[in-house]
Structure formats: structure tokens, C-alpha cells
Amino acid sequence: MPRSLAPAFERFCQANTGPLPLLGQSEPEKWMLPSQDAISETRMGHPQFWKYEFGACTGSLASLEQYSEQLKDMVAFLLGCSFSLEEALEKAGLPRRDPAGHSQAGAYKTTVPCATHAGFCCPLVVTMRPIPKDKLERLVRACCSLGGERGQPVHIGDPGVSRGKSPEQGSKAPAAVSGLGLQMPLRFKELLGIKELSKPAYGDAMVCPPGEVPVFWPSLLTSLGAVSSCETPLAFASIPGCTVMTDLKDAKAPAGCLTPERIPEVHHISQDPLHYSIASVSASQKIRELESMISIDPGNRGIGHLLCKDELLKASLSLSHARSVLITTGFPTHFNHEPPEETDGPPGAVALATFLQALEKEVAIIVDQRAWNLHQKIVEDAVEQGVLKMQIPILTYQGGSVEAAQAFLCKNGDPQTPRFDHLVAIERAGRAADGNYYNARKMNIKHLVDPIDDLFLAAKKIPGISSTGVGDGGNELGMGKVKEAVRRHIRHGDVIACDVEADFAVIAGVSNWGGYALACALYILYSCAVHSQYLRKAVGPSRAPGDQAWTQALPSVIKEEKMLGILVQHKVRSGVSGIVGMEVDGLPFHNTHAEMIQKLVDVTMAQV
């Protein structure tokens, strides 16, 4: 590349170290052509380089000798390639894709943009290997042992089709979601945007057999797009498959460096599309500790029988990949009072929404129409008192049909273009098998509940939308995932058990605790180097662990005391006792809820 562009290209590589691991560069006027003895005999006479003129590839060359004068004013960059990765996979027990070495591994252009710098801009290019499901975590760990960003995969699962366009002009959205600035649809936008694995941009296609999972790594062929983007009068690049063997040793991480903060765990978070996420062992253990803390049973309801391992971890991993989240809450258990709502639910929903806002995700809350004014005032007061940084749109849904639910969730009712990619229910009344809604005392409150359950049912049939339910008694929306355990172990469970399931069921002694724990788990994940790199696809800069905006958005005793005080001002009652006061589910804020909040934050912030 011309020496005038060398500093900018070096910084471009440093900003995108996953696909462009810079090993070194030559000094101007010290470019050395490889002697013929240095080129393997099988390559003699074959094209070794592509020639670029003003951004266009204009031909291939077997040698650069005819450009010796121009090369005196050029700088050569050496980038690490995927052969080192192949060796790591082979040592871990995965055979090379072409033992004879005759084919060139396929590489795919994605819709993921690299971080731009001084005219250099291009999409990420990736390579793919199908990995047997039963070897997935072991092989991913083997690759990560290479050190740096080039060994860690950038995506595991369906590469998806990017659908990141804004709604078309003139398209009609339901009145409840119009005017909110929700730039959906975003289906699979966080994936790679590869339409067909059978059509690579470079090399030979790879087949992904049944029982194996496509795993993608960043490719140095990303550099070809960068060369084109700068539109320099003259540049050269090695043809894919033509590599230079160096005497540099692989940057394999020393055994002592493979700490729990760098060792990945792989978790399946979606079946349609097939999607896995990764986080470090250390981050995963912290989130499991949060899950254990919130699962205590202060009301002796028997919720221990409902617990499923790693639901909080998987729910938070899925939320970390979401771009637009719809949260619902509201359990009108006090049907003889106005308002009939309880103090469990809204604080957890607002705490989660606050942290999602800090992560710059779209977020809205959906409630019963009769309770819209109440929740609107609660949110306004929360902003005024500093609990929330900005307003949260409050939506309603009256239902009516499957088509109505799909129209609410998707632009023009098209399941290919959903407006939301994750639904969360926190202490939301859930529909029982007989179609009614029951409080814990087996009282039917159906007349007070809108059919928001229909949105969760519709989401099950829309690829790319995941869901989480948070509950403490089994009659909450989403608890259909554990309904058999609810029927066997929870008082009145045979009647009150929610029949509508979510993808993830987070069980907590008090549902608010589940909302706090989800916010804390997201903080842990975004502070995890392994997960953060996976989210950004190894391109662009990473944010420092403990980012101030994230820290301020975490739940705190002070903020949650203010939040509960707001509910009390609006005459919202405690769920168990019916008291209008500083308690939730009959438990005092001080000495119970405050203590839980502080414990969750202490675990979250430990060693960040």
C-alpha cells in the first residue's frame, strides 16, 4: 500500500483486531521481493497477488517484479491467517476440512461493518467450520487458547439474514406502537446477514451436516474490502490461499493466562434461529450466584420445586443480543381496591428498563389499558426523582385474534419484520389452562386483565423473538414452562398455574428480585471481555468494564426505596398483606428488600 496510507491502515487494523491481526509491516524502500527459492515449486507460475487500481481489482499477478519502482514508495503489511486456527482445531480433535489441502476454505461477506478510519471502511468477512454439537464448547475453548481476538468465534449458529431497514414510509403500525421511534424491524440484525452458506464470496462452500453447528471466525480477507474502500491508485494483496510462512510462533496463551475470565462457556439461547452465545466461566459463575440468591423462598410457597438451572444466565444472554425489548407487568390481585395492582412487578420492570436504556436498547412497557394512567404517572415520577434517566413508552393491547397479536409485534403483520426481539414479563398475571386469571388465593381476576399473553403465544411462532417470564408463585405469565411443577407443589397450583410459557423462566422469592437480577446479569455480561468481544463481532473498540453509565443504571437501595415510595403515593398495595406502605409481598423494604438489592449489587461489582 502507498506509504501515505500506511499510518491510517495501521490504525484501521488496530481498531479491528479480530479480522485484521497485524503481525508487522515493512519500512518504506525496504520492501523485499521473495526470491524464487522462497516460493514453493508448486506455486511457480501461478497467480500470487491481486492488483487494485482506484479500488477495483484489475488483475492477478504471479510476481511483483515489474512494479519494483512503485514498491519503493509502498509499505507491506503482514496479517495473521486462519491456518493457525485450523491447527488448534485439529489438535482438539476436529479433522482438517480438506486433509489433502486441495481446496480453499470458503469465506463470507457479512453485513457487520468494521470500525471505520480515514477512508477505510468495509464489512466483516468470516470463515466457517461446522462443529459437532457435543464438541462445541471444547473446540471453542481450544481456539480461544490462541490468545488475542482472532481465536474466538464471532458467531455460533444460524448466520441469519440482516433486516435492519427502518419501517417504510406509509406503513401502518398499531396505534399503540406508532410514534414511539422504535426503529424495527430488526430481525437477525445482530447476526451476520449471510443469506446462503452454499454461496461464499471467496473459496469453496462448506456443508454443515445434521448434528453440527456452523461456527464463524473473523477472516483476514476483510482486508480486501478495506483495500477497495480507500480507492488508492495502486495496491496489491495476496490472493486468498496464497500465504507467507513466517518464523513467528503462534501467540498461544500460556496455560497460566487461561483464567476463568478468559475461558468461554457456550450456551444455546435460541432454536429459531439457531443461536448460541458465549460468556466467560467467571461471568457465568457470578450470574449463577445471583440466581441462587434470588431463589430463596421467604413466603414458603415451595418455589424451590420450580427452579431450572441457568435460566437467569440464558435469559440475560438472550437479552444482551436483543435490540428492542417489550416488558410487561401488573398483577391486579387486590380486586376490591383501586388501584388493584400490587407493589411487586413495576419496580423490577423499571429497574430492568433502566439498565436496557443504559445499554442503548429500545425498550417499552405494556400494561392493562385500565392501568395505563397509573403506570404513566409512575414512570413520570420515576424520571422526576432520578430513578429513571428518560421516559419509557407505555403501551396497551386489547387483543382480539392471532392476527392482532402478530400485527402488534410485526410491521404490517409480517413475521419476517418484528418490532421487538425479546418480551419480558415480570410479575404479570398469567392465563391458566381454563382461560381465566387467578391470584394466589384462587380468585378469578380475568375482568381486570388484558390478553397480553397472546403476544407471548404469537412470539413463539415468529423467528427471532425470544421471551422471559419472571415469577414467584407459578401463576405469572411465562411460568407455563414449569406448570407441571406448579400443579404438584404450589398451593392451588392445579387451578392457578399459568399455561403460557416463556423461553426462559426466572424463579425468584419476590418477582422484583428477578428484575433486579436481570439488570445485574446484563452488567456482568457487558463487563465480560469474552462476551463483549462476541457481541461486537471482534470489530471496533470495547467499552471498559465498569462503564460509568452502566454503574449508575444498576439497581440501588436508594433508587428502589424511591420507586417503592412512588407506588405508595399512588396507593398501590403490598401483594400479601394489602397494606399501603413500604413493603412488597408482606416483606418490609428495610431489612429484607434493601438487603437483597445490596447483596445483588455487591456480587455484580466484585472484581469488575
UniProtKB/TrEMBL annotation:
The keyword Lyase applies. GO terms for biological process: glutamate metabolic process. Residues 290-600 form the D-glutamate cyclase-like C-terminal domain. Residues 155-175 are annotated as: Disordered. The keyword Lyase applies. SUPFAM superfamilies: PSTPO5379-like. GO terms for molecular function: D-glutamate cyclase activity. It comes from the Eukaryota. Keywords: Lyase. InterPro entries: D-Glu_cyclase, D-Glu_cyclase_mito, GLUCM_C, Putative_hydro-lyase. PANTHER family: D-GLUTAMATE CYCLASE, MITOCHONDRIAL. Belongs to the D-glutamate cyclase family. This is D-glutamate cyclase. It comes from Pongo abelii. The gene is DGLUCY.
